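Morning - zinc ion inputs below, output right after.
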Amino acid sequence: VIVRLATYESESGPRVAALRNGSCVDLNRYDPNLPDDVIGLLQGWTGFADRVRHAALHGPSLPPGSVKFLAPVPKPPKVICVGLNYKDHAAESGVPPPEEPVIFCKFSTAVRGPADPIVLPRASREVDYEAELAVVIGRGGRHIPRDQALAHVGGYTCANDVSARDWQLGKPGKQWLLGKTFDSFAPLGPHLVTADELGDPGQLAIRLRLNGAVMQDSNTRELIFPVPDLIAYVSQVITLEAGDVILTGTPPGVGFARKPPVFLKPGDLVEVEIEGIGVLRNSVVAEGAGT
Ligand code: ZN
């Protein structure tokens, strides 16, 4: 049985659920021994996995159509991002491939789910898309060795590293942080595939479609620094915690590198698809239009 984890919006706030063939089971309501939030669940995953599979099979399904899915991890403690991690994306950005990972971050206020729009801020005219594999940490740690790094992963999901290029590249000192962290610039989803179900994160097809047209089409085997290297590198500096999200970088085909450049506009539909995970689909709206 393939079981995925999701977070949905209940009257009492976000709650973790298991998905099985389109049905959605509230894990903690069926089995009070399970945590009601995804971070607690990932933290103790080895002890919970069998109970989750049992609940997914036998628990009552929430009424279909009534469930609003949030980001699989709605409030990650940290969102850590990797720049220029595909060789040909570095080339299209006009820089040599980096010798060490290039790390920046987003704040958790940027996180959105699969039902939410990307909001184009009034302060930017150059908002771009970036399809990325997102790694969600399960067991935290510091100084995690490369050969043990995957054991610290709780699961994987799709991400869009939405980027205001005029802030990221055009402001004094280059404002990578602000250009990447406008509210709504970190859509995640549609659900989480646990690490034990996905297996090797280093050979997954990854693509992005804008209004149905394929704009990015690559494979995570092209990552300059694969997932274990990123976890080892970052944890030299930072204590990784359960629920932290690492966006692993984007393949070539982003909008600003195209001739002529392509930027997001109201009414667009952006889809990030990763093999073995699913499709993260977000509409695009202008700030002020009900936001
Ligand atoms: Zn990126």
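Note: The chain is about 20% helix and 30% strand.

O.
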